[in-house]
Amino acid sequence: MSRPGQPRFMRLGETGRTPITLTVDGETIEALEGDSLLVAILTARGRLRRSEFGPEARSGFCLMAACQDCWVWTADGHRLRACDTPARAGLSLVTEQPDLSWPNRA
Amino acid sequence: MTEVKRSDVLIIGGGIMGASAAFFLRQRGKSVTLIERGLIGQQASGTNFGNVRRQGRFLPQLPLANRSREIWGRLNELLGEDAEFLPSGHLRLAYTEEMAGRIEQYGRDARPYGLELEMISGNVLRDRFPFLGPEIRAGSYSPLDGHANPRLAAPAFGRAAKRAGAEIVERAEVLSVEQEGGSFRAGTADGRVFRAEQMLITAGAWGSRLSQQFGEPAPLVVHGPQMAVTEPVPYGLEPVLGIATTIPEEIIYLRQVKRGNIVFGGGIRGPASAETLRAYVKPENTLGQLAQITRIVPALRRLNVIRVWSGIESYLPDDIPIMGPSARISGLHYAFGFCGHGFQLGPGVGDVMAELIATGRTSTPIEPFTIARFASSATNQTGGHP
Amino acid sequence: MAEPRLIIVGAGPAGIRAAEQLVAAGLRPVLLDEGQRDGGQIYRRQPEGFTRTPEQLYGTEAARAVALHESFEQLKPQIDYRPRHLAWNVADGVVHTISAGKPGQFAYDALIIAAGATDRLLPVKGWQHAGVYSLGGAQIALKAQACAIGRKVVFMGTGPLLQLVALQYHKAGAEVVALLDTSPFHRQVMALPKLAARPDMLLKGLRIVAGLMASGMAIHRGVTPVEIHGEAEAGVTGASVRLASGEIRRFDCDAVGLGYHLRPEAQLADLARCAFTFDAGTRQFWPEIDADGRSSVPGVYLAGDGVRTQGADGAEISGALAACAALEDLGRPVPEARRAEFRARARIMERFREGIAEAYPWPAHLAADLPDEAILCRCEGITVGELRDAANAKGADEVNRAKALTRVGMGRCQGRYCGHAGAEIVAAATGVPLEAVGRLRGQAPVKPLPVAAGEVEP
């Protein structure tokens, strides 16, 4: 079964695309051009974020921009919906909510 | 017609005013029936911003606001339920020197009423509240004000009143009210009749429909507050923030709830109808508010709004409520038309009205709010003197 | 007289066929679509650089998908196509959009809403764990990204999508541990007369069933979901159901695709103030429409799965019909013969829709039977017990009241995925009929609106 950090999604094809690299929580991950951000992260990791109101990790749900369960933060504090944002080379993302001083950094 | 219930006091309208009055009347030993057309706290009491703010109010209203604030502080033990009151402080902000001067003057004027405000500006303001935007010049800090959950407060009062023995009748629309042989009578749309020795009308936007049956119409108009809430983010904005301004588009207030969502409202009011029971948020108003909240806290620009809502609030021409005894009929009382600032006052209004009804007097001055101030216009409306 | 301003929301089968009719009548509609590319969810196109064939992507529906995509390519120069435009609100004859963070406004004389559907969900204990996806989501992972949602996948729920996705996963090389359908087989048999309204679809359905039988995956019908097992960090570890025999069986897996057919995305219609009506057959509220797709609001037309779950073929016809209705109301009637043909086909689609709804019923009793500790609202982490308490102890026998007291439906998804089950729970707890328990009133924005949009002049 999937342990923390173990990839959740499994690629079944279309693997001939150009590789790109992104940074997630400070670590470099490999993805493919044409991946959504969600797929880029979940083919390398087990989760996208944490629930605000429960102990559990979250990894998206609907993949069609309806459930809003796949928002991740960019390293500079912006929010991206992972399922309908294309992965771009060089993006740096964090899967933990920033600390309580977030409003002090405009 | 069957006599359903006879009680000491009949309250018409189950918003926070009526529900808290029912609760405090029970504490004073009066038998109470509260009749509500829909559900307790469903209209303006449940849809407002949730400000428990005293500063900035009409000065003669401060004794009432202070009395209410004291109740907010012990609300949970009083009701046995959590209405999420958070005495997080309230910061009233100014963009201009002129408005900074005004809020400073307000601080001086409020002191005799027992409201201590701290004027903060420049680097001190930014050191203490580092999330504020560069346009903010000064702020007046009220450390004991805060916010609460409007969806919970009035229903909690209603349930506590019920537990204390009040009769709470929901989904019953009162169509007729009258005085009959020294007592009051209310008839509902479904044919029920209620009687009582005294009557309190706390029917919000629908108050004048009832008061005019006693010859005391009030020039109420309705508007919809334009409210919105963001997704939850870590709790980091402690005080309630509000802008003091004379420019309607600039009016904005926001608060972060402990769960993390940021609630905001203000600006141009939207359409509402007391007839259809609907109120709307205009999309352009929401966009306008977004531009304003980032002036106060620039970091909000990273967030998303997940929901907007409105409600049916009633306003009077002088922007202060009707509260107190009828000017014409003994035993009849009013508390409605709170002009978008009734939530903080709610518990105090209930307490004061209960005192007034039970003892015939009140230790908190409420004279400025008498319905008698509209008596001449009422005469005009009924086609009397020119 | 100025050209009438027509707006279509949604570039799926309904929206594209609506646009086609409008273009044929000499108009140039605005087509607003949230997606990056046309096709909607059902005929969603894979990103540039992907190489699978339409047959691999769309299976038996490849020809229809290709036909729709080709129609769209031909239409494109003749319409004002706005991809990546979320219609977040509508008021006073203006659709409000957000695109790349910028707000936009599109005034209309006629508005055709073809917003599509999302999965209809019913919670099961543990569905908040990482690795649980909606069936539609599981399909998108495969169709749009050539991925499986896990290494060992269980599909659970009911509806045509359940079987289709399970088979698609199997064919693509994923390991499907089990297909667990809450609908007993006899319901499908009983629905045959209505399903026979579309013999072609019935045959395709039978072929899917045959394909599943041949796949070797465990298939159980008439099951009762018990729990999705999982750990806070690792996510899904298994799924348990009570089989029709009464035996509780656990299937080890690391992903679950969950869904109970589809529900209309009717928020925009709601914001346009269209009247809704209760459908006893599917136990949900949906917008009122006439036979051609006119809503209760003049100038607003509704088409596709965003109003009735008829599937892609039905959506194409309802889109065309809605456009014909709009044209007629604008004083540009379409040839009666053409419309008569659409209407005749629409009746067949509606009969088939009823058949599907009867064959794969919404299992309302499962919501009523959920344990108190199950999470109902995934967004806010609200349990079934909290909602029951509000319904019982606090008198919240209406969904909007229950929402106000418990936050169920107040989270990021705005009740899309917990709303129907929440209503069932309130109805069961209070004994109030579902129809009277009501529906969550739609509130803007349709989807999250970036605060930064306020910094841009519209």
Could you explain how this protein is built, in words?
The complex is a heterotrimer of chains A (106), B (386) and C (458). Chain A is built from one helix and eight strands. Chain A has 106 residues and is mainly beta. Chain A has one domain (19-96): Ubiquitin-like (UB roll). Chain A has a five-stranded mixed beta sheet. In chain A, strands 4-5 form a two-stranded antiparallel sheet. In chain A, strand 2 and strand 3 form a beta hairpin. The longest helix of chain A has 6 residues, at 37-42. The mean pLDDT of chain A is 91. Chain B has two domains: 3-47 and 151-217 and 319-381, FAD/NAD(P)-binding domain (3-Layer(bba) Sandwich), CATH 3.50.50.60; 90-143 and 225-310, D-Amino Acid Oxidase, subunit A, domain 2 (D-Amino Acid Oxidase, Chain A, domain 2), CATH 3.30.9.10. In chain B, helix 1 links the parallel strand 1 (3-12) and strand 2 (32-35). The longest helix of chain B is centred in the first third of the chain and has 14 residues, at 97-110. Chain B has 386 residues and is of the alpha+beta class. Chain B is built from eleven helices and 22 strands. In chain B, strands 1, 2, 8, 9, 10, 11, 21 and 22 form an eight-stranded mixed beta sheet that branches. Chain B has an eight-stranded mixed beta sheet with strand order 5-6-4-14-15-16-13-19. Chain B has a two-stranded antiparallel ribbon with strand order 3-7. Chain C has three domains: 6-118 and 263-357, FAD/NAD(P)-binding domain; 121-260, FAD/NAD(P)-binding domain (3-Layer(bba) Sandwich); 365-437, BFD-like [2Fe-2S]-binding domain (Arc Repressor Mutant, subunit A), CATH 1.10.10.1100. Chain C has 16 helices and 24 strands. Chain C has helices at 13-24, 54-58, 62-75, 135-145, 160-172, 185-190, 192-195, 199-215, 267-271, 311-329, 336-359, 364-368, 384-393, 399-406, 419-430, 434-437; strands spanning 6-9, 30-32, 80-82, 86-91, 94-99, 102-107, 110-113, 117-119, 132-134, 147-148, 152-158, 175-181, 218-221, 224-231, 235-242, 248-252, 255-260, 262-264, 276-279, 284-287, 300-302, 375-377, 382-383, 449-450. In chain C, the strands form seven sheets. In chain C, strands 3-2-1-7-21 form a five-stranded parallel beta sheet, with helices on one face. The longest helix of chain C has 24 residues, at 336-359. At the A-B interface, loops of A face loops of B.
